[in-house]
Amino acid sequence: MYPFLKQRQVLHSTLSYYSIVLDYCLSAKSLELTKTVHAQLIKLGFNTYTYLGNRCLNFYSEFGFVGDALKVFDDISLKNSTSCNLCLKGLLKSGHLENARHLFDGMPARDVVSWNSMISGYASYGLADHALGLFLEMQNAGVRPSGFTFSILMSFVSSPSHGKQIHGRMIRSGMDLSNVVLGNSLINMYGKFGLVDCAFGVILTMKELDIISWNSLIWACHRAGQQELALEQFYHMRATELLPDQFTCSTLISVCSNLQDLEKGKEIFAFCFKVGIVYNSIVSSAAIDLFAKCNRLEDSVQLFREQYQWDLTLCNSMISSYARHGLLEDALQLFILTMRKNLRPTEYTVSCILSCVSILFSVEMGTQVHSLVPKLGFESDAIVANSLVEMYAKFGFIGDALNIYNEIKSRDLISWNTIMMGLAHNGRVFMTLDLFKELIREGTTPDRITFSAVLLACNHGSLIDEGTEIFSSMEKEFGVKPEEEHYAFIVELLSRAGMIKEAIDIVETMPYKTSAVIWRSILSACAIHGELGVTERVAKEMMEIEPQSPLPYLVLFRAYQMRGRWESMVRVRKVIGHKGAKQIIGCSWIGIKNFVYAFKSDQLHHHGGKDVYQVLKLLIWEMETEGYL
């Protein structure tokens, strides 16, 4: 027996040696060394051993070498659950979802790790329904979910009720909710839906809080719009021994941005200097945003220039800061620089640039940015798609906007609002109303922007009955309180139809102070349809709100002229001369290639104006000779 025992000892020592070497390969992340050791194992016939095979499999799966992982998996004589789980991990990490499911379905025994890997794989590819279905299968198979299972489920919950159901399932499954990891996942989940009370309820059940707990709670308050409450949690956190990190500080600076509290934001930024995280890109980008929102763009630019190294987060903040202050060319130039530095833009960057293009540049520039979308893999991204729809609609290419909208697989309310507003602005009245009816049928609740688009469409189509009906239903049926813009639309609709009394009745019921825009609509209608007394009353209201506007005087002058009130005409003319009311000059833009030309009604602003007029004369002459004029 002695030789046999000695042989076993030698074998055990050899296996231990190769196990240690493979552990070193994993920690050193050395593919070359791993392949050398793997080749040695094949020569010695040790590649069939489960223990060593799993070690090789772990390395190849961890670093995405799926081909090598599958070869190792095939060589293992006695595959255990660890072998299958490691191979499953490698397939999912490399994007082979179908192969992973095939392996999963063929596994003789599936433990909780197997189920978690597959559920996590579906979740990471955005297949939430498949992940949830697999979770139900897991329960039917009698496998008890772990804390990690519930953490995965909480990462893709689609609604507050769904999140509360998962929370209830965790309680019924006997999960230790005082566990800091599970507690943090719950706080983060409730924060995503703005359920701050539920987040505080979770905090009360936790025995200890770490930095992630406080960060999640502060973020939850911030996301729910309760900025002062977020600052209070920071003060409570400072009372503990925990030191805020870059995530705490960046969230707090964002809180100050929303409050537009520059002084408090500066205090937090000074604290970042004190703890040495001021040049962290997350903190710096939040500070750039803070300065820009508080009208200190020069400080944003200075901070951006002081950065040792650019990254995407910093560039995104600076691009959006330029755009917010109307420096659209600077935003576009910085975007081009980030591309040249091989910094891959996010969907938010592309969306911001598309907005800049639609305001200042030509559609050719927009199509160039559009061509980047498939290269960056954003074809199915809703944020980018919505920006493209808005851009093409603003340029009047409503067909292109509709094509992009129809390709959006998962439409949110922003998608609906964007296309409806685009259709309304382009005079597609009935298409806008049809989409509104479709939105209601699908059970999506409209918001104030939805109603703005529909009322604008009714305005363009002079649809008085439809417009007044929709306006009346806003608060009664959908709980959307009409705002000033909605009143402006309905007043303009009635005024243009000559229903001046009805328009004034609506103005008198407004819970807001009447703006000059609303009185302007009524006054314009008075110039055509109004009685003299009503015209004088509306003109007086307009004069009080907007004393420098020439419109009320011009309308009164016209009204007196039509009725032969010559003395009143003279008085109005004197007032106009005394006030020096300026004539409003119309202006329009046109983009040709890489240039945008501005045209005013009294002059032409660009080089080569004479050449343009000469070409225009030639075109008119040609149209006259062809009989078009």
What does the model show?
It is a single chain. Among the domains are: 361-410; 587-629, no CATH class. The chain starts with a helix and ends with a helix. Helices cover 73% and strands 2% of the residues. With 629 residues, it is an all-alpha fold. 36% of the residues are buried. The longest helix has 27 residues, at 2-28. The chain is elongated, with a radius of gyration of 33 Å.
Structural class determined from secondary elements? mainly alpha
In percent, how helical is the residue content? over 70%
| Strands in their spatial order, largest beta sheet | 1-2-3
Per DSSP E runs of 2 or more residues, the count of β-strands stands at 3
How much β-strand is present in the residues?
A: under 5%
What is the makeup of the main sheet? 3 strands, antiparallel
Low-confidence stretches: 1-12
Radius of gyration: 33 Å
Distance between the amino and carboxyl termini: 115 Å
Task: Please work out how many helical segments DSSP would assign.
Answer: 35
Q: Mean pLDDT, rounded to whole units?
A: 79
Q: Which of globular, elongated, flat, extended, rod-shaped describes the shape?
A: elongated
